[in-house]
Amino acid sequence: MQAVRTIDRPKRELYVDYSMIFIVLFLLTFGLIMLYSTSSYEAAIDYHDSAYYFKKQLGFTVLGIVIMAVVSRIPYRIYKKFAIFLYAVSAVVVLLVKTALGKEVNGARRWLRFGPVGIQPAEVAKLCMIIVMASLIAAINRNIATTRGFWITFMIPAPISIMVWQITENLSSAIIIYGITFLMLFVSTPGYRRFILIVTGLVGLAAIVVFSVAKAGYNSELNFRFVRILAWLDPEAYVNDKGYQTLQALYAIGSGGIFGKGLGESMQKLGFIPEAQNDMIFSIICEELGLFGAIAVLFMFALLIWRMVIVANNAPDMYGALLVIGVIGHIALQVILNVAVVTNTIPNTGITLPFISYGGSATVFLLIEIGIVFNVARNIEL
Question: Which of 132, 133, 128, 108 is nearest to 118 (CA)?
Fold first, then answer.
């Protein structure tokens, strides 16, 4: 009896973007170093432990890396089945801020406390909305080009964004959620007319608000966001109020020069910049490492985005590409807005610098998003 010959099929080769892994780990490591340098003085005074913030952030970073590794092995297409559920989850976690689980930090009720663990609902909403919008756009496919399909899709994030804005008083996160949606629609929709109209309308509205606030001037009943606009226009006039933090950040940037004062040698972190390890950590980078260090950090973010663009361009399907585009939008918007706030290009909005600013839940959820990107990359056939 003649033996049957079997043909061995070549094993499918997986795509692993080692350069992106290196960039993420570099940003996390650099962030921990800068966090310790920035927060050690304040931590020693408040908690009698100069490494207090560093230890907490290190724990969340390790946890985030473990979760990222697990998520990178979960087939990304499975999230599409839970899109409606995740939309509901994003709404529920925001509403929970008004319950006993809500926690007030620095005058803003934006956190949920589960025992020793704190979670920022806005970070959950960002991740959920990336999955929801990718699932929706991929589902309606070519109908996105129609007027009805476009505007219905564009309005889907509106309830969540409004809830994040009004309930958690977190306008910056609401803007980022819509910015992510805008980018995903821009990539998936042919033509630019609608987007030009949207951008023109938003710029015009912003200009009207700024002009009106500047003309009205300051009064005691003015909304705190409008006071931030006045402080943005003239920080020195509001040095005892909303302009103080911005002015001190500008002092830090200016004193750093080209090559900086040296790691750990910042003066502004010694109680002059409030909560320097959070929103204003980029100013300390500029002071200690100078313009050279600041450009190097921004270059690493640009490399990370470039590698993710390559993954999106080679994704197996539209859904996978849109997931990656959503993550790109999230990271790019936060980097741009954070740097713009620190340099007083836009009013202070409380935006953190991804992977570098202090914040456990923000780091963990960002790493979950990176894990999804890695899984999309693993499904690219070579």
Answer: 108
Per cent of the chain over pLDDT 70 is 92
Of the candidates 379, 347, 360, 353, the residue with the CA atom closest to the CA atom of residue 171:
347
Q: For 340-352, b where at least 16 C-beta lie within 10 A, e where not — what string?
A: ebbbbebbbbbbb
Domains held by the chain: number: 2
User: Taking a C-beta distance cutoff of 8 angstroms, is the pair 43, 36 a contact?
Assistant: no
| Domain region containing 61 | 13-71+238-382
Eight-class DSSP state of 40:
H
H or E segment to which residue 103 belongs: strand 102-105
Q: What is the identity of the amino acid at 193? A: R
| Backbone phi and psi for residue 95, each to the nearest 5 degrees, phi listed first | -65, -30
Give the domain-ending residue among 191, 221, 256: 191
Mapping DSSP onto H, E and C, the string for 220-271 reads CCCCHHHHHHHHHHCHHHHCCCCHHHHHHHHHHHHHHCCCCCCCCCCCCCCC
> pTM score, two decimals?
0.91
Radius of gyration over every alpha carbon of the chain, rounded to an integer in angstroms: 22
pLDDT at 88: 94
- Residue-wise pLDDT for 235-245, tens only, equals 777 766 677 88
